[in-house]
Every structure is written in structure tokens, then in C-alpha cells.
Amino acid sequence: EHADGRNFCNVEIMLWIYGQTGGRRLLDLARASQAAFNRRHPDAASSLRRMLSRAPARDHGVNYSELSKLPAILFLHTGRRKLLRASVNAWRKLSRDHILVDGVPSSTEHLKGHDSNAAHETCVIADAAWSLGYLLMGTGDAAYADWIENIVFNAAPGAVLPDFKALQYFSSPNQVVADATANHHAHGFGWAHMSYRPNPATECCPGNVTRIVPNYAARLWMERPRGGIAATLYGPSSVTFRAGQAGIPATIEEETDYPFSEKITFTIRSRRPVTFPLFLRIPGWCRRPRLLINREKFADALPRGGFVEIRRRFHDGDRLELELPMDVRFERQPGGGLSVRRGPLLFALPIPERCRRDRRDKRSSDEFPAWNIRPAGPWNYALAAFSRHWKNAEVYFPNIGKNGGQVFQSAFAKATADKSLENSFPWAGRPMPVVLRVPAVRVPGWRARRLKVIHDKWHGTRRGDFLMTPPLPNERVLGKASRKVEWLTLVPYGCTQLRIAVFPAVTL
Questions:
Q1: Of residues 113, 131, 126, 310, the one with CA closest to residue 228
Q2: HEC profile for 419-449?
Q3: Contact, 177 vs 448, CB < 8 A?
């Protein structure tokens, strides 16, 4: 029986085995299971009828993220376009109603909207990137690859410690505290859900977090239905395939420090010349992409957002150099917030930390410790984004200049770092791959929420020192911001534990 609850997810496994074996029995079972689910649960948010409608989803975040991809997978094996439309519309509605700045639906168990204080379950980080991969396969729309990058390069590393020994159950673009009582959401209010632990209140997230990078790697390269191969996501890799009508073996080697570098190099390896179409993705955020083939410009202009097709006779050793200039840009967020990006990376203020091991955590050990992290310095800043100071913002590449010096470049000029990050650990900030220096002012009235007594329906009344992340300040509080400009150092979101990634903004 595969038509009720999470059992419906078994349809994905049926179709994977069908794709490997061609056994029609499993395809028929998958189609029958889908029909039975829609017949029994017509009002479920993940029913075909509801996914095709404009009605907002209010479902359990993990359930919806997993179930909403199943019609797209069925489309890949049946060609029924209505199924693909259902999955596409389901994720369009998620974007409209629930997607946070790092690409993941708000989901503190159930979908929660665009609130500036919203968070997401780590399982949903994994499931969102996983599901979007099927939409990329079904539509060929490069925007889904951009979306996957946002999740994998930002939300995912931001929810785990660099040594991968502790993670959060709930993580948030803004989190000024991450200890055993910091959870400010209704589900598990005042408990350890937002702290970094090997098991922060549930077993599903420690299992699911391990799937994020393998799913990304599995979709670096894809075959096109009408022939050819596409670089859909970027990362150091190689792919071997049979090219052209003759099926000549060929390999493409990809070298890059992306997403920290703008440069991606592809080298063709083949014993014989071979003709095939190669498709390279141009992210939607890139305004001036450039492609050289054997040091010669491929075209005067490349498409912004989508795939550029290179159809030619390739020889062994042919070299393609793709450059994706990464501009610094603002993005407005719901609730009056403002975020800062450079290329695919979201930037955040790293909050100074007071980090202590929680030895009372029975699900931790010396090898896999649990942590209580509280702020040890100021974090309550508003960006001076609409001021004369912003023109002096800088992109900064630590330890990449001559003799290990420092390179500062205008945030609004072309900024590049040529030194490879090989043998470094950029997500741990060793060294920090790139930082931004931006103007900001303190907002004294924007403070962490502090409680001495809390109540929840599961555990009743508890007393203690509860410190929680506040929402963005209102206009009254923001109106009392300091007029003194300070220069903040922002780092990639994935290099932070305590952080502010959605800022209030002021005009000076």
C-alpha cells in the first residue's frame, strides 16, 4: 500500500528502479499509487488538484517538499505534461508564500510564511534541493539550478558546524543565539531545536543532512534529451560519456573554486575528434558572462539566465574558460529587510560567539559534542544602504595578494581573486574566501528577547534564562538608530553560526 502519508514517497523508488530495469510492473504501480492518493486525499496540499490551484500550501514542510516532486518524476517516465505543471506550480506557490532568503521554505514543522524571524528544518534544506533537481530535469529551466545553488551554498552549510559533527534542527537567516533554550518557534518553544548538536531533538535531520552534497554532485552534469551534455551545476568534477552519433568516448574535466571564484575551466579529453553540443549554464544573477574557447572569444554576448550552446567539433585538449562576474547586489526581503549577495553567495554578519559545551546533553559525546552558543559582541546593526557611504563598500580577499597580503576592491567594480583555494577549508573560514566591508549603524533598541518564564503545551511552565532571536525592528525602534557609521565585515552565510543575513536598512 503506497497511497497514504509518507508511503506515497515510495513512488520515487519505484520509478528509479523502473528507469534502471524497464520493468513495467513498477511503472504501473507508481501510476496506480498516484491515482489512489489523489482519489483518497483530494484536499491534501500535495494532491494534484491542490498543486495545480492557486491555494497556498499550509502542509508539513518536509511532507510537501517531498510529495510535490512526485508528479515531476512521473512526468519524466510518462511524458504527461499536466504532472510536470503540477510540480512547477507547487514550487511557484512555495516561492510566493514561504521561501526565505536562502532559498528554503520556512518550515518549523509546518510551512510558516515569509516572517523575518522564520526558520526552516534541516530536513527541508535537503528535500528542497533534492526536489528542485527533478524540476530542473523536467523543464530544463536553469532558474532551478540557481535556486539549488542558493540552498546548497548558503542554507546547508549554515545549518551544520564545519566539522560536520553537529547540526541544527531549525536554522534561520537571522539567529543571534543557538543554545539549549533558544528556539523561539511554537514547535519546541524554549528548547534546543536551534542549537548545534549531533541530535538536536530529532533523528531525521542527522540522517537527511548527509544527502545534500551527494544530491548536488549527482546533478552537476546532465544529458540532453536530443543529444549533448549540460553543465547544470558547477563544481570541480569530470564526466565521461559517449558523444555524437558514433558514440565516441569523451571526458570533460572541470576545474574551479566556484562559488568563491568567478572562473570555471573545462578541458576536453578524447582520443578522436568528436562533434557534440555542450551546454553551459549562465546564472540569472550574472550580467556580463564571458566564454573563451582555446583563448578565443566565443560570442560577443551570452544569454543572461539559461544555457549557452556550444556545438562544434572538439579535439583532445580543447579548453573552455567560462567567466561569471559576481556583482554585489541588494535584495529586498519581506518585512522591510535587506540582504546582500555576491554571485550565488548570500552574505551575513558573523556575530562574535561565546561557545560552551553542553555536557548535560545525553545524546552527545566527547567525539560528537553539543554546544551552547550565545553572542559575545554587538549584532544589532542596520545597513546604511541608502547613503553616500555605500559607494565605498569593498570586496576583500584575505591573504590572496602578493606575499600573502590583502586585496581590497570596490564592491561596484570588477573584483577577482586569482589564487586557488586548493588545500584550504573555505566553509570554516580557513582562510575566509571573500568578505565584504559595508557601512552600517547600530540600532540600540533592537535587542534579543529575554524571558524568565515560558509556557508551552507539552511541558507546561518552565523558569530560567531564555534568550531568543528577535524579529526585525519596527519603524519606531529603527528611527532611534545611531547616526554614527561603522564598517561591518560580512562573510559568506555558510561560514557562520550566529549571524544576521536579513538586515534592517536606514537612509542617512
A1: 310
A2: CCCCCCEHHHCECCCCEEEEEEEECCCCCCE
A3: yes
pLDDT grade, residue 422 (50/70/90)? low
**Partners of 486 in the beta sheet?**
440
* Closest CA relative to residue 386, chosen from 326, 336, 351: 336
| Contact present, 90 and 46 (Cβ < 8 Å) | yes
What's the CA gap between 46 and 33, in Å, rounded? 14
Domain over 222-323 is classified CATH 2.60.120? yes
pLDDT at residue number 6? 87
Q: Which residue from 147, 56, 71, 177 is spatially nearest to 110, judged by alpha carbons?
A: 56
Q: What is the CA radius of gyration of the chain?
A: 24
DSSP for 231-273 reads E-S-SSEEEEEEETTTTEEEEEEEEE-TTS-SEEEEEEE-SS-
For the record, the C-alpha cell of 68 comes out as: 510535490
Quickly state the pLDDT bin for 400 (edges 50, 70, 90): very low
- From the list 333, 65, 61, the residue with the least C-alpha distance to 174 is 333
What is the pLDDT confidence band of residue 416, given thresholds at 50, 70 and 90? very low
With the CA atoms of 125, 126, 131 and 135 taken in that order, what torsion angle do they form, in degrees rounded to the nearest 10? 70
Q: Buried (b) or exposed (e) across 404-417, using 16+ Cβ within 10 A? A: eeebeeebeeebeb
Average pLDDT over residues 460-478: 95
Task: Say how far apart CA 337 and CA 344 lie, in whole Å.
Answer: 19
Any idea what the Cα angle at residue 188 is, between residues 186 and 193, rounded to 5°? 115
Domains 5-162 and 222-323 agree in fold: no
pLDDT of residue 387: 77
Q: Residue 206 has which C-alpha cell? A: 542527522
> Is 418 or 354 the better-scoring residue by pLDDT?
354
Domain ranges of the chain: 5-162, 222-323, 328-507
Question: Is residue 262 within 8 Å of 326, Cβ to Cβ?
Answer: yes
| Residue 407 near residue 451, CB atoms below 8 Å | no
CB 212 within 8 A of CB 219: no
Tell me which residue of 195, 111, 99, 82 sits closest to 155, measured CA to CA. Answer: 99
> Span 5-162: which CATH code?
1.50.10.10
CB atoms within 10 A of CB 7: 12
Helix (H) or strand (E) holding 89: helix 81-97
Do β-strands 229-231 and 237-243 pair in parallel, antiparallel, or remain unpaired? unpaired
Q: What is the pLDDT of residue 398?
A: 66
Max intra-chain CA distance, the chain: 74
- Residue 267 is placed in which grid cell? 578541458
